[in-house]
Amino acid sequence: MKAIPITATVNGDPVEFLCTPDEPLLDVLRNRLGLTGAKEGCGTGDCGACSVTVNGRLVCSCLVLGAECEGAEIATIEGMADGETLHPLQRHFIEKAALQCGVCTPGILVASKALLAQNASPTDEEVRYWLAGNLCRCTGYDKIIEAVQSAAAEMRGEV
Amino acid sequence: MALDDKKTRFKYVGTTPNRPDGVDKVTGKAQYGADITAPGMLTAAILRSPHAHAKIVSIDASAALAMPGVRAVVTGADFLDHEDAFFADVSETCMAKGKALYDGHPVAAVAATTPAIAKAAVRAIKVEYAPLPHVTDVDEAMKPSAPIVLEGRALEHVPAGMSQNVTNTCEFGHGDVEAGFAKADLVLERSFKVSATHQGYIEPQACLASFAADGRADLWCCTQGQFFVRALCSQIVGMEASQLRVTPSEIGGGFGGKTTVFIEPVALMLSKKSGRPVKVVMTRDEVFKATGPTVHASVDCKIGMTKDGRITAGDMTLRYSGGAWPSGTIEMGAQAGFAAYDMPAVRTVGWTALTNRPKEISYRAPGAPQAVYAVEALIDEMCQKLNLDPVETRLKNAARAGTLSSYGVTFQEIGMVATLEAAKAHPHWSAPLGPNQGRGVAAGFWFNFGGNTCVSLNISTDGTVSVTEGNPDIGGSRAAISLMAAEELGVPYESVRTIVADTASLGYNDNTDGSRVTFAVGLATIKAAREAIKVMCQRAAAFWGIDAEAVEWIDGAAHPAGPNAGKFPPMSLAEIAAMSFQTGGPIAGHHEVNVDGAGVSFGVHICDVEVDPETGFTKVLRYTVAQDAGKAVHPQYVEGQMQGGAVQGIGWALNEEYIYGADGRLQNAGFLDYRIPVASDLPKIDTVILEIPNPGHPYGVRGVGETPIVPPLAAVTNAVSRAIGKRMYQVPMSPPRILTTIKG
Amino acid sequence: MVKVRLWGTLRQWTDGQAEVDVEGRTFKEVLDALAAAYPGLGPQIKRGVSLAVDGVIYRDAWFQPVDPGAEVVLMPFMKGG
Amino acid sequence: MRYMTAETAEAASSALAAEPGMARVLAGGTDLLVQLKAGMIRPDLVVDIKKIPGIREITAEAGGWRIGAAVANAELKEHPSVKSAWPGVVEGANLIGSTQVQGRCTMAGNLCNASPAGDAVPGLVAADASVTIVGPAGTRVAKVIDIPAGPGKTTLVKGEIVTAIHLPARPARSSDAYLRFIPRTEMDIAVASAAVSLTLAEDGTITAARVALGAVAPKVVLADAATIIGTKLDEAALAALAKAAEAVCNPIDDKRGTVAFRTSTAGVLARRAAIIAYNRAKGAK
Hints:
The structure holds 4 protein chains of 4 kinds.
Chain A: E1 4-10, E2 13-19, H1 25-32, E3 51-54, E4 57-60, E5 73-75, H2 88-95, H3 105-118, H4 124-130, H5 142-155
Parallel strand pairs in A: 1-5
Antiparallel strand pairs in A: 1-2, 3-4, 3-5
Chain B: H1 22-27, E1 42-48, E2 54-60, H2 62-65, E3 70-75, H3 85-94, E4 99-100, E5 106-112, H4 115-124, E6 126-131, H5 138-142, E7 166-174, H6 177-182, E8 186-194, E9 206-211, E10 217-221, H7 226-237, E11 244-248, H8 264-274, E12 278-281, H9 284-290, E13 296-305, E14 311-321, H10 329-336, E15 346-353, H11 368-385, H12 390-397, H13 416-425, H14 427-430, E16 437-446, E17 451-459, E18 465-469, H15 477-489, E19 496-500, H16 517-544, E20 551-554, E21 557-560, E22 571-572, H17 573-578, E23 587-595, E24 601-611, E25 618-628, H18 635-654, E26 685-690, H19 712-724, E27 730-731, H20 735-743
Parallel strand pairs in B: 1-12, 8-27, 10-11, 14-15, 18-19, 25-26
Antiparallel strand pairs in B: 1-5, 2-4, 2-6, 3-5, 7-15, 8-13, 9-10, 9-12, 13-14, 16-24, 17-18, 17-23, 20-21, 21-22, 24-25
Helix pairs in contact in B: 7-8, 10-11, 11-19, 12-13, 15-16, 18-19
Chain D: E1 2-5, H1 9-18, E2 23-26, H2 32-38, E3 45-48, E4 58-61, E5 64-68, H3 73-78, H4 82-85, H5 87-93, H6 99-102, H7 107-113, H8 121-126, E6 130-135, E7 138-143, E8 148-150, E9 153-154, E10 161-167, E11 174-181, E12 192-200, E13 206-214, E14 221-223, H9 235-248, H10 259-281
Parallel strand pairs in D: 1-3, 2-3
Antiparallel strand pairs in D: 4-5, 5-10, 6-7, 6-10, 8-9, 11-12, 12-13, 13-14
């Protein structure tokens, strides 16, 4: 298989990479760009651990080909904090104990950020349905919902 | 404080500081099993049996080996023969020898320069199979006509009417069961079925092995126990333990499922053959097909009860299958089944039979949910028949101090009554219900364990503290251990950093399992801190020129005591640390112990559901968990264990199961059809932590992680059964099963 | 003498007795004495057993003292997940 | 495998037609990449159609809507008008997979994947929607119901691609609804599903209706809508509809459901979807 050269941006940085035609974006991020924050929990779009945004749209990076990403703006968990300053979601996830093993956490944070970008005041039920594609086996989700809501409140300037 | 003194007032323990691994985990920096790489690394792929049961006639890997980029192939022939059945069995779960025993059983593995070449090479390996008859159901496997899964592993005396697949039997109990039934006003006997479930950790197994030409090797992997991995791999591969260093990565969930090896010996063998580092990462379907699920079970349960709700006797027969190899889990289930109750007469008989399924591995309270489910569901049915309140009835029969337990031990102070009282007092228990809704309650029990534990605690010259422990942190244990070190030493939590060591850095530690880490590693940490305090008191005494016995440690500082009290200003940990080089050298404490005294725990769960009478769809509306957790070191993380365990149990009750086809192949090896709960399936999971101190721990800490998965199977069953007005006898209660019962 | 309670499966090796008396002051002495007096128990003891002394379960603690008045219960070797 | 981006539908069609080996179309990729991952298929050529002009656009046409074949279902949901005319079609499309999958998956992809359980298809069939197909023999239009041929098979010939889905114009007092049964609340494949599209007279009598069922036969099937036409959806009509739905079921027993369960649930869903569609057509929100 002949590799394809792609130019894109990841977390605002210009990147160039070669990928095989059948190579998922997830493998590109992890194996070619050294961005291992997105995880492969299933490789079939059922767990959400590989969530990233491509051109602002939340996707499973295991279900996108690297070859499709010419010119794309990709955002991953590695770009969520601003230097040493954590995003409110990241901070509230730690403070509310919304993670245990943490392997689903990058995907859930990316997905939660995408939710709050389009709905600053979701109900608990809206958060639960939005995150239905992000499996977490440790927490039972309770503290995740709590952390998203408290981060949302802070982002709305209510705290 | 003396080494064994108890402490009941706390400054740091019981607070909820941020976990030390938090920032790395929310920024994507934390390194899990699949995130680790090495220069020159090869990638492996594994060829697996498509047959449930087949003789492997021949394996021809020549075409694979001829492919450019392929550097090594291993098959069962490369693996040593082991006399010890334990090691032989583990080795054979990693690579079949002669016979494939289940769909997904590894048959060969390839290491190549890219994943694509490895996958293509696996396809190029030619295996000739001679398929054999298979059996995947425990009841079928016990019939004399069943195909024999493994020759030579049957009980010495298999009873008439049973097959050579029966590998284990056990019996527990006391009293005259028949006499007990004779005293009952109602005796009910029911049969239950419990499907096998998977731990469902989100991170698939992954490892990287690197074998050096001189016989040393390094292994990085996601595991619940690097020391056990070393013990298994060194035996399977045939090397000295000290020559293999195992470093655990962050672990993306385990729940018992990462307490053994599947791919690590394969990676080591491929690395040895190729001379290159080799990485193995399982795919999700490999995880489902070929790592350990739970046992599946078939249970007959019989209980006698008087009109006013006193249990007179219980008798239960449990049939478990842990797949193609013998498994001892039946003993845990048989002991746990009736353990929550004061049984005048009780008998539990257990059987284990082999089936063509992957080898069972622990899953949170292994063996207990299946047995307790039957007991708790039957008690609920009897309460309905006798028009009794299910909580009051459980209170009437609850085990308490002095009760002779179903497993033979007389209980000391335990929390069953307190836990039931907490459930009864919770507003959930008395809230109104709507149409098609039902409320279930169920209790659960688990033993909890301690085990081999080593902790090394070092005081830095700047007055900060490093704790080195040997148990992968699966739910926040580094934070809990840091809290206990801070508490004992009297320094801020932020001054303590706890790390998980590789196998070369500490003595043997048992796996992160059995709800043992916060309890046992915490205990060793406290004792290591007390050792360090002793040294620091000696240094201060020497500095002051007084007797070391006349110095006491209060709130992070050495104080002259007794006749010397007030003679010198107290000297803080930081001050003593700063002069440590001049006063005898670096200061440390360590503690190595095989901890016992974990203390049993009880949980009571309340569940409300609404069932769609036309489709059987079940929605969990409200859920409450009450549990005696001992001293809650980090209460948020204790709640997290209770919520997470309950939700796993809810998944088991409603949807999760291993489904085998008539061909003996697994039908649902993916998250699409192995349906673990998603966020929108669930309500808030309310928690009540009862801090009943464990006398076996200096701070009263008790294991909490496993008990929460025990009650949900019955709590949800009882809720559904009450909602539909008919009893359910099988989990999971998938909608077709519920609808069949409704239409009944 | 220590009175040791046995689980049901083991009673086939003790002529049906649910409790047997043996000499022993520690975990290991009790196990050795059991295996000596009832050789049928040997294989199970070798495979692994726990001993509960006054309600506390011990798994490998050879030197754990066992007082003559204590409640001593033999259990299978226990494990968790 | 080769990957190519087609600039026109014709270019895509010729490349697919010219490929001697296995060729696949890539729109959202949410089925294709899963099949690649599982090793179910190893195509020689994948043609990405997302760069074809207009293929990611929703446009009004002849009182109805033209939905480009590469419009992601999340984009469909965000469109200000389609949902008010065809709420059932849009809700069906939006039940596929997760939020993440919604960002990629398309109705046309769901249709051409030809799973009997595809959530987007019953709504389109009930709507009597059609598709534009570009192929080696030129452009043709076909009804959605005629595209699936059975599980995983379509009636498209080699080199043909669907470029757009057409939702027809809506008479007054028309609406639709889609319901599916899954064991969880999200993330599952439909065990049974039903879409109902109907039009009412001023007095509330149903004048036209189509009822399509998913996951109960090798492909989406229509149930006899005459059971509710001419009625005001009274209990008798609903019972007749449920029976008619059950009558056309020809499902399989599998890990997701039994024949009996699928059949009875299809009847339940048809009845419930009809009530929702009826209330919507009457103007209820």
